[in-house]
Specification:
The complex is a heterodimer. Chain A is built from six helices and no strands. By secondary structure, chain A is mainly alpha-helical. Chain A is globular and about 45 Å long. Chain B has a two-stranded antiparallel sheet. In chain B, strand 1 and strand 2 form a beta hairpin. In chain B, helix 3 crosses helix 5 and helix 7 packs antiparallel against helix 8. Chain B starts with a helix and ends in a 5-residue tail after the last helix. Classes of the chains: A mainly alpha, B mainly alpha. Chains A and B meet through helix 1, helix 2, helix 3, helix 4 and helix 5 of A and helix 2, helix 3, helix 4, helix 5 and strand 2 of B.
C-alpha cells in the first residue's frame, strides 16, 4: 500500500499540512486562550474557522466525485468515507469535550501551536500521546477478546 | 437602511477581535484539507497521527492497523508544525500585515533570531490533563475538530455532526465550570 505510492504523494501531503497549519496559526486556533475565550462566550469567532473550513472542504468533497473517478496520486476513488455511528462517538466525544474545555487544545491546533513557538504545549502533546496509548492498550486487550466473534472495524 | 448602532455594538462585543482572521484562517485550513483530498482522495484528520505514530514503538494491535498510513501522517503533522512556524515568521512577527489579520493580546510573545514566537499562559497541569482526555476521547470518538469538525461536517456525515455537537456542548460546560472555580489562566 505505501511502497508503490506516487512520488508526489508525500510532497503534496506536506504542502497540504503547511497550508493547514498556517491557517490554524492565522486563525489563532493555535492559541489555547482563544479557544477557551470562545467556550466562555467572550469571543465567538471560532465557528467561522470550523465551518469556514468545512464549507471549503465540503465543496471539494461534493464536486470531485462528479469530475473524476479516482485521485491521481493514489488511484483511490473520491467517495464519502463515513464513520459508523455507535455509542463510542458519544462517549469519546464527551471525554474529548472535557479535555478540550479544560485545556483549549485539540490535536491539529496543538501541532500548529508548537510551530508558533508555544513550547509549553509539549505538556498537552505529551498528554495526548499518554491518552492515545492508554485507550489503544485497553482496546487492544478488549479487542483481542472480541476479535474471534466480531472482526475488526 | 441604517443599521441600529446599539445592535452593532452588541455584535461587536461578541467579536472583540473581528471575524476576518477566523474566517481567513478557516478557509486556509479547508484549503489544506482540499489539497490533500484532490491529490489522494484522503479526507485527512489530525488526531490519527497519535495512534499511527505509536505504532512505531508499540506492537499493540490497536496501533498496528495504522502502519500503512503512519509515514504520511508524520509528514502531514510536520507540515502543520512548519505551517505554524511560517505564520509566526510572517504575520506574528509583523513582517507581513493585512487588514484581515488582527494580532490579539493573549499569551506571551518572545523573540528568537528575529522571529516573534508566542507561548501560552494556560497552566501546564490544564494542558497535560486536558491532553490526556483529548487523546483518549478523540480516538474513542473516532475523530477530532479536524476529522469530525472539518472533514466530517464537510461530508455532511451524521456521525460527525453528532460528534461535534457532543464535544462542543461538553467543552462549553467544562470551560464554564473551570472558570467558575476560579482557575485562570
Amino acid at each position: 500500500m505505501s511502497a508503490d505510492r506516487h512520488p508526489l504523494f508525500k510532497p503534496l501531503v506536506f504542502v497540504g499540512g503547511i497550508t493547514f497549519g498556517f491557517g490554524l496559526g492565522f486563525s489563532h486556533m493555535a492559541r489555547p486562550e482563544v479557544v477557551v475565550n470562545f467556550l466562555l462566550f467572550d469571543d465567538l469567532g471560532l465557528p467561522f474557522v470550523m465551518f469556514g473550513a468545512a464549507i471549503v472542504s465540503g465543496i471539494a468533497f461534493a464536486l470531485l466525485p462528479r469530475v473524476r473517478d479516482a485521485a491521481p496520486l493514489t488511484g483511490d476513488p473520491y467517495e464519502r468515507r463515513l464513520k459508523p455511528f455507535d455509542r463510542n462517538v458519544l462517549v469519546g466525544g464527551a471525554v474529548f469535550g472535557v479535555g478540550w474545555g479544560l485545556s483549549g487544545i485539540c490535536p491539529g491546533a496543538a501541532y500548529a501551536s508548537l510551530g508558533v513557538g508555544n513550547v509549553t504545549i509539549l505538556w498537552a502533546l505529551g498528554g495526548m500521546f499518554v491518552g492515545a496509548y492508554a485507550q489503544g492498550y485497553w482496546r487492544s486487550r478488549t479487542g483481542a477478546r472480541d476479535a474471534a466473534a466480531a472482526g475488526a472495524d | 437602511m441604517v443599521a441600529d448602532p446599539v445592535l452593532l455594538q452588541a455584535v461587536a462585543e461578541l467579536f472583540p477581535n473581528g471575524i476576518s482572521r477566523y474566517a481567513v484562517g478557516g478557509l486556509l485550513v479547508g484549503l489544506g484539507t482540499v489539497l490533500i483530498y484532490v491529490g489522494t482522495g484522503i479526507p485527512a484528520g489530525a488526531s490519527t497521527f497519535l495512534e499511527s505514530t505509536l505504532s512505531y514503538v508499540s506492537d499493540q494491535s490497536r496501533f498496528q492497523r495504522y502502519v500503512g498510513s503512519r509515514d504520511w501522517r508524520v509528514v502531514f503533522t510536520a507540515g502543520i508544525v512548519l505551517g505554524g512556524l511560517a505564520f509566526a515568521a510572517t504575520f506574528q512577527s509583523g513582517l507581513v500585515t493585512s487588514p484581515l489579520y488582527e494580532p490579539g493580546t493573549t499569551g506571551q510573545l518572545y523573540e528568537v533570531a528575529g522571529v516573534t514566537l508566542w507561548t501560552t499562559e494556560i497552566q501546564p497541569w490544564r494542558l497535560f490533563l486536558g491532553g490526556i482526555l483529548v487523546g483518549v476521547g478523540t480516538r474513542v470518538g473516532k475523530g477530532c475538530t479536524s476529522g469530525h469538525g472539518v472533514c466530517g461536517v464537510g461530508s455532511a456525515s451524521k456521525t460527525s455532526l453528532v460528534g461535534v455537537a457532543t464535544f462542543l456542548t461538553v467543552a462549553i460546560g467544562t470551560a464554564q465550570v473551570v472558570a467558575a472555580l476560579g482557575v485562570s489562566p
